[in-house]
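Can you give me the bound-state structure? Components:
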Amino acid sequence: MSGKKEEMLLDVKDLHASVEGTEILRGLDLQVKPGEVHAIMGPNGSGKSTFANVLSGREEYQVDRGTVQYRDLDLLELSADERACEGIFMAFQYPVSIPGISNAYFLRTALNSVRRYREESEVDAVDFLELIRSKTDLVGIDEKLLHRSVNDGFSGGEKKRNEILQMAVLDPKLAILDETDSGLDIDALRIVAEGVNALRREDRAFIVVTHYQRLLDHIVPDHVHVLSDGKIVRSGDKTLAHELEREGYSWLEATDASAGSNS
Amino acid sequence: MSEAKELQDLADKEYEFGFVTDVESDTIAAGLDESTIHEISRRKNEPDWLLEFRLKAYRHWVTMEDPCWAKVDRNVIDYQEISYYSAPKPKKTLDSLDEVDPELLETFEKLGISLDEQKRLTGVAVDAVFDSVSVATTFSDKLADLGIIFCSFSEAVAQHPELIRQYLGSVVPYTDNFYSALNAAVFSDGSFCYIPEGVRCPMELSTYFRINAAGTGQFERTLIVAAERSTVSYLEGCTAPMRDENQLHAAVVELVALEDATIKYSTVQNWYPGDAEGVGGIYNFVTKRGLCKGDRSKISWTQVETGSAITWKYPSCILLGEESVGEFYSVALTNNFQQADTGTKMIHIGKGTTSTIVSKGISAGQGQNTYRGLVDVKKGAEGARNFSQCDSMLLGDRCGAHTFPYIEVRNPTAKVEHEATTSKIGEDQIFYCNQRGISTEDAVSMIVNGFCKEVFRELPMEFAVEAQKLLAVSLEGSVG
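Here's the bound-state model for the whole set.
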């Protein structure tokens, strides 16, 4: 391991967040280093998606307490588009469609927004086409999808693959996958996972939010965290995911109860 | 929601073209009676038949009532407070641009539509209407070689009286409605265009209108006649300087397409919409109608309406010739306190006539946007077909969208389809764009442009680019 790798990419401390006055995250801590893959698991309603949305800067999510340091930045000070430009990417659970705007145009607009922010020159249509062709193979996406409106009439699998394609083009430092496996059959799941694996790099970290262990058979995590009632109640390596698969989340209640009695 | 607030801020961008040119105007006193009509006609050196036409229209107009059925909220207009004639005082007869008042030219420069530039760079012939009198007409000679007539209405009255007498009021009679009667009585100037048999007009014909003198209503009259097998594409683009009081604009546009002729009429309208509190702005009450007179003729209206305090117009097609085609493509955007009640009428009379309506309404701020359209299939219109699609998009939660489709079918073989959707520009969509690094302002502009794509692709290329920019400017401050 190089010294570089020891630098923290993301440092979340005592994060409390609420949606429309309801507190969802209640003191979440997480440290992520470059190159690591962290899986966040947990039952429905435990705050997994909220965490993903808070990190990517969705405004409906109110941060009430805590800090999030990202590289040398106070992440909570940045707007959603600034965070994206700083290298945070979220693959959506339900990617929305934008009728009338071609996928290629959208992606080039996004890429050039990011490049402008980074004070790099914009990519013209020709160079962009070349760039994107090199990426479509990576995620096994049909080039025809580039010319259709963004996610409009895409199948579930096409949408998720499109998310991975966008990730490949925008080249993030921290990629957050929000329940990317939901609604995918096993073949689509494998293709998406292969895309993600191909994008794993020493200087790029992933936070994989998932309810089920099966995605983690394909995207093997370095760390697994169990989220319950808005905070991480257990962390471990990939074997923790298997344990959860066998035993479900019911043991969490027992843990909570014992934690309660200890306090 | 802060998104809504942001949307609002984006829409709050000040009107870019708000300036007044200080040109000495030759304006007659406010008020309207028969002597006003005589005075207008005298100043314009008009022949008796035209004065007679005006007087008949006036006498009819005084029997009519200002209509109030549109879904718009407006002040009562005092027609006696309006001055019905205003012309920049020409120092002498103008032969070239060099002789045009330099201040006038400067105004055009500010608008980015300098005639010079137009002439040299774009190959578009421009008949510029500054207030009520055409100050310069370009490319006429080149067009004249093909037998195309493209000139101011006054000029046409003097030089082609037989054509004017034949077609004036033939599509929009002065009895048609309150404003068409008023226009027929007091119209000051406008454009005339005649494309002879078999001629394909080699360039887009373009007119820029501009309302300038304070308190002066502008009453344009446009007449386009496309003879057998001819084709023409006509562009109309508008901006106006900032004003505090409401200015009435009641134009009449008449199109006539003979056998196998095609007329494409494109409008980008960006008149002063009033300020963010809804004060001022243009009342744009226009009657536009095309007659597909000959078999297999075609008239296509494309409009992008972003300006005016109130837009109230229904560019329509009377499909008289067999297998004639009518089209209407519209984008209407209302922001702040703007109101639009617009749509079309497709009157199917001939056999095998077809019409297409694509309407996109965008409401932001407290804007109110109404689509009102009539598809009327008459008894003899065997096999007539219509397809209508009316989509509305809402930005924020204080605006409104309304759709009133009227369908009357008297022929059992006709096929009429209507689709309508309303969508709210999603915070989900905006967040999705944000998360890809795209700013909220750019995101809204992109989403709205995507929404309008089916209409924009009907516009001539350079107009489409302008229209996209205009939408972005009009939405600035409304979003994000």
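A couple of observations. Chain A touches chain B through 31 residues (CB under 8 Å). Residues 224 and 239 of chain A are 8 Å apart (CA to CA).
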